[in-house]
Structure formats: structure tokens, C-alpha cells
Amino acid sequence: MKIVKLILPCILFLLVCSCSQKEAQQAQAPPPQVTVVVTQAKDVPIYQEFVGQIYGFKDIAIRARVEGFLTGIHFEEGSRVEKGALLYTLDSQPFEADVAAKMSKVAEAKTMEAKAKSDLDRIEPLAKEKAVSESDLDGAVARYEASVESVKAAEAILRASEIQLGYTKIYSPITGIIGKTKAKVGDFVGRSPNPVILNTVSRIDTVLVEFFITERQYLQLARRFKSEVELADKKNRKENLELILADGSVYGYKGKPEFIDRNVDPTTGAMLVQASFPNPQELLRPGQYAKVKALVTIVKDGILVPQRCVMELQGTYRVYVVGDGDKVEIRNVKTGPKIKQFWLITEGLKPGERIVYEGLQKIKEGMVVKPTVKEIESTDQKQESK
User: Fold this and answer.
1) What pLDDT does residue 7 have?
2) Is 301 helix (H, G, I), strand (E, B) or coil?
3) d(CA 201, CA 179)
4) What are the pLDDT digits (tens) for 23-49?
5) What spatial distance separates the first Cα and last Cα of the chain, rounded to whole Å?
6) What span, in angstroms and rounded, lies between the C-alpha atoms of 296 and 218?
């Protein structure tokens, strides 16, 4: 029993000594080194991406305007064709026969006109001498006038037949790129269920990109975008739209808005927007998909913080701030969109504050640290918003 009474004080003494030594060591330990970034206020542009489809500046469908068998294809598929170039020929024999028949009708009408004119020329002097009655003269005049109109009608019918004959040759309405033919030589075209559209010619030195925006996006874009679209002079519209192609590359030319559709589609809640992009190398082709990047808004005096500085816990975002006396405090913040490696902070931070960038695992709230400022390159003014 005496031994136990002696051991217990010894143990307590040792515990007190060890705690004192530990506290002394902690008091003597230097503060941990951390890397911090200093917040800055700047105007931050917010961009939005929209999936769009590319169309030619003009996409003209080539159709047969008369029925018949296709007898000739006079172009190379996928090549450039000039305006007025012959593309297709149809069997013209039935139309030539019809033109010949109409020409005979014109000749017959002109013969009748000549006879009526001869009769009138013979009767007129006789009528002046009262050798024939006035009714005979009136009849001759009426027959002549009727023959003149018959000639006009026959000539009009002939012109209509010649127009139909002309439709057997199909020419390119514009200069552009022609696609794959949908009919071959020998096909009967011009009537369903045969192909109605033989081909399409597209002018692609400038292309149109159509994409859809939601009602909310429209309200964001309206003040910046709609005012430019409504300019009377299209040349004054700013080319401030970027095009991101399917391989992720940014197209070398910027585009400009052309129009916003008049209404929101009630079935989808989306609104059609059309933009134009120069295409001098003809890299872009109709049917391609691409992303249109547009400036939605500019956040005045926005604060960008590297994403690695922000911690998330159950939907709450926090950062470590090194305050006065190099003491660490935890600060709750509200975040906006991500802009590349940065995060836009909308609430909770002020310009000039120091945010812990490296060494997060070594610190806790209330701890004194030794900060080292790190310069982080500011995000480019044209980085995309996610």
C-alpha cells in the first residue's frame, strides 16, 4: 500500500513534466510556411457557349421544274460551279414536239390574220363608194381584229411551250459548291415519289451559324446582343462572336450576329439566333456542328481566386484568409462561374486580402503562419465560362 502511494505522485509528476515540455516545444516551434495569393478586383468577362449548326450563306435546292427522264449530268460532284453553269439535262423530245405544234398554230393564226387583213383592205374602199354595206365593213374589221388577237394568243402559248422546253436544261442559280447528285442518268424526275430535290448548291465564302438560347440566356444577352442586331447598317455590327470547331480549335475569324427570332418556341422554350462568319478558305461546310462563344456579361470589380484555394463542405464554400498578425481565419464565400483555373467569388472577399494557396493541410483556424506571396497569372480576358 505504501508503494502504491509512492508511485502515484511520481506518475503525476512525470505527466505534468511531459505536458510542460510539449507546450514549451510548441511555443518554440516556428509558424508553418504557407503560400498565399492576394486578391485583386478587376472587370471579369463572362462567356457562354452555345451548340450551333453551320449553313451556307445561300443553300439553293436544285429541282426539276418539268417531268422527264434525266439524260445528262454536267458537273463533278463536290466541285465549284459558276452561276449559269449547266448542271442537268432532261429528255427534251416531247417538249420540242410540243413547241413545233405550237409554232404551227402560230403560223395558222398568222395566215388567218393575213387573209382577214386582205379582206378588210378590199372592203374598205368599196364601203367608201357605198358598193358594200356598212355591216359588211364591220364584219371585216371584226374578223381582222379577232385574227390579230388569235396571233397574240398563239404566240403566248408558244412562249409557254418554249419556257417548258427551257426547263429541260437546269443551270446553277449561284456560284458555289455543289453536292452529291440525288438522281442518276435515266431516272424519271420531277414527280413524286422520285427525287424532287436533285442537288444543292451552297455559297460558303460566308457561312451562317444557327443556335438556340433559353429565355434566361436571352434576357442576359438582350442588352448586349439585341442592340447590335437591330442596327440598320449591318457593316457597323461588331464581330465579337467566336467559333469553336469539333476538334476543339478556335476558328480564325470572328462572327457577328445577324438576327434573333421574333418569338420563343413554346414547345422547347428556346429562341433561334443566327450569326455569320467569314469563310474565305472554305474550311467550314454546311451541316457541321460547332460551339458559338458569346460574351454574356462583364462583372465589374470581380474577384478571381484559384480553384485550389476553395474548399467545399456540404454545399458551403470556404477559404483560408491570412489576416492581421498573420493569423488564419476561415471565411465562407459565395461562388460564381468557373473561369479556367479560377473561380469567381461574388461574396465574402475584398480586394487585397491574402488567401492560402499552398499548405492548406498544415493549418487550422487561429494559427499564426508565415505567408509567402505567390503571383498567379490572371486569366485571359477571353477564357470561357463553365
Assistant:
1) 63
2) strand
3) 7
4) 544 455 688 888 889 998 888 888 889
5) 75
6) 9
CA 207, CA 192: separation in Å to the nearest integer?
31
What's the farthest any 2 CA atoms get from each other in the chain? Answer: 177
Q: Are 325 and 341 in contact (CB under 8 A)?
A: no
Please give the angle made by the CA atoms of 231, 235 and 238, to the nearest 5 degrees.
75
Residue whose cell numbers read 450576329: 257
Contact assessment for residue 21 and residue 290, using Cβ atoms and an 8 Å cutoff: no
The x, y and z cell numbers of residue 41, run together, are: 478586383
Cell digits for 37? 495569393
Tell me, what amino acid is at 91?
Answer: D
- Give the number of other Cβ atoms within 10 Å of residue 355's Cβ: 23
Q: How many CB atoms lie within 10 A of CB 332?
A: 11
CA angle 349, 354, 355 (to 5 degrees): 75
- Tens of pLDDT, residues 317-328: 999 999 888 898
* Domains observed in the chain: 31-45+299-373 (2.40.420.20), 92-167 (1.10.287)
**333: β partners:** 317
Residue 29: alpha-carbon gap to chain centroid: 62
* Burial zone of 52 (CB within 10 Å; 0-12 exposed, 13-18 middle, 19+ buried): buried
